[in-house]
Amino acid sequence: MTKPENRVKIVDVRYILFDLDGTLVDSSEGIVNCFRHAFMQMRREPPSEATLRTCIGPPLLDSFLHFFGGDRALALRGVTLYRERYGALGWRECRLYAGVREGLAALRGRGKILGVATSKPQPFAERILEHFSLYDDFSVVVGSKEDNSFDKKGNIIRLAMSRLGAPRAETAMIGDRRHDIAGAKENGIFSVGIQSGFAAPGELEAAGADLVTEDFLSACAGIIRSD
Q1: Phi, psi (5° rounding) for residue 71?
Q2: How far, in Å, CA of 210 to CA of 219, rounded?
Q3: Residue 16: which of 195, 226, 178 has the closest Cα?
């Protein structure tokens, strides 16, 4: 494992945005099962579990477009089948990462304002947060639209910041994939990568994360230490 490295000093971070899948919750079981369901319903051989796990984080439509060689009709059919199972069962097939409740409580205790910015559709994101009794911990929850018209991480982060009234210089994004880091950079905010999610080795460093930590609690502690 790459040793976490604080490359840029965090200054006056007050607003903190979190990714959902791979950051707050381990959603791999439900996501992998729903991908397999979609492929089997389309009478196609599902990719390996290792390959499917790489799809956790990016917009769902992008993953299906990749699998189906850019064929949008097939990709949209895959998305529909995936979400049929996800809405009925898949959203429950997840678990909260260790330290999430403690980390959020510590941040709130230091006066931090918290939000969620996820590529998961808004209704599912809210349902999962409510399932784990976390919804009220966040001042804003922004997810994607189910019609795939709003699913890019940079846009989602921008909207969350707008709703919070969060200045760039006072905002950080915590996530586990390169898309989280790219979205943060697109918006000019501090980026924190968590290695305990679904990133490949070296992915977060290559994406240019300002801070890379081993897990959720380490990420929260890194921000608190900046006060």
Answers
A1: -70, 105
A2: 11
A3: 226
Residue 19 falls in the annotated catalytic set: yes
Task: Check residue 98 and give its pLDDT.
Answer: 94
Question: Given 19, 21, 137, 180, which residue is catalytic?
Answer: 19
Q: Domains plus CATH for the chain?
A: 15-26+94-224 (3.40.50.1000), 28-92 (1.10.150.240)
* C-alpha triplet 11, 195, 103: angle, nearest 5°: 55
Strands 95-96 and 25-26: antiparallel
CB 67 within 8 A of CB 78: yes
pLDDT tens for each residue of 142-187 = 999 988 788 899 999 999 999 999 999 999 999 999 999 999 999 9
Global pTM value: 0.89
